[in-house]
């Protein structure tokens, strides 16, 4: 039970969003420049983008593996605020009550992309202590469409400061983020870079997979045409200029 936690208190601690300090110029883990713009058609090729540092988007299984040889990774993520109702109705079953185990004997863990407004920090601490990851979903879940890179950096890094002040979770453990309603942009990624984040989880696999009028992905859309993970050296390859 970390000394920094405000037991049973919801909402951000007493830290002003205009006084969060300057985001550290940590940059991406690789230190490489990343192109946050739309990808130029055909710019990323096997001859100029090679593993382990670079990988182009594509629908073919990486490494020439067959479908049977390809390992399967199942990622469990949650975003928005964490409350007692959500915990007892969903999270507790996934983390503490399940008997499911992977090949190494480990149970499931989640990544929580948390907004500060309304989040119960006691539960956030419990989730982190149980081995799950705590990541950032902005301070108050405002529509970020018009955010500048500096505004993105302030709301993302400010959320890190809020969460660290209210829990026992160190700032350095919160290195990823997700945009509200999956509204990502060049400014968002540039702001993440300025804020020292190592990854983002906002880019959807296919724009035409989003259901009309909301940000839910229709998993049945164009099965077999979804992209494998790739690096951003040549831009966001779901958006091609």
TrEMBL record:
Record region (Disordered): 1-29
InterPro entries tied to this protein: CE4, Glyco_hydro/deAcase_b/a-brl
SUPFAM superfamilies in UniProt: Glycoside hydrolase/deacetylase
Transmembrane stretches, start-end: none
One GO term (biological process): carbohydrate metabolic process
Coiled coil regions, renumbered to chain: none
Name assigned to this protein: NodB homology domain-containing protein
Species in which this protein is naturally found: Beta vulgaris subsp. vulgaris
């Amino acid at each position: 039970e970390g000394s920094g936690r405000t037991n049973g208190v919801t909402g951000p601690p007493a830290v002003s969003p205009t006084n969060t300090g300057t985001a550290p110029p940590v940059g991406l883990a690789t230190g490489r420049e990343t192109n946050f713009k739309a990808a130029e058609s055909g710019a990323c090729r096997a001859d100029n983008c090679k593993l382990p540092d670079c990988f182009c988007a594509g629908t073919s299984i990486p490494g020439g593996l067959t479908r049977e040889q390809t390992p399967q990774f199942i990622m469990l993520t949650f975003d928005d605020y964490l409350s007692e109702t959500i915990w007892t109705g969903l999270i507790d079953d996934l983390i503490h009550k399940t008997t499911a185990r992977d090949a190494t004997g480990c149970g499931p863990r989640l990544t929580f992309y948390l907004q500060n407004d309304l989040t119960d920090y006691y539960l956030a601490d419990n989730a982190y202590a149980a081995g799950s990851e705590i990541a950032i979903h902005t301070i108050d879940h405002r529509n970020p469409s018009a955010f500048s890179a500096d505004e993105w950096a302030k709301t993302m890094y400010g959320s890190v400061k809020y969460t660290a002040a209210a829990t026992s979770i160190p700032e350095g453990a919160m290195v990823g983020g997700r945009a509200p309603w999956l509204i990502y942009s060049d400014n968002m990624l540039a702001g993440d870079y300025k804020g020292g984040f190592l990854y983002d989880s906002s880019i959807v696999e296919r724009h035409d997979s989003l259901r009309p009028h909301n940000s839910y992905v229709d998993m049945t859309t164009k099965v077999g045409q979804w992209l494998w993970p790739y690096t951003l050296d040549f831009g966001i390859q779901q958006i091609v200029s």
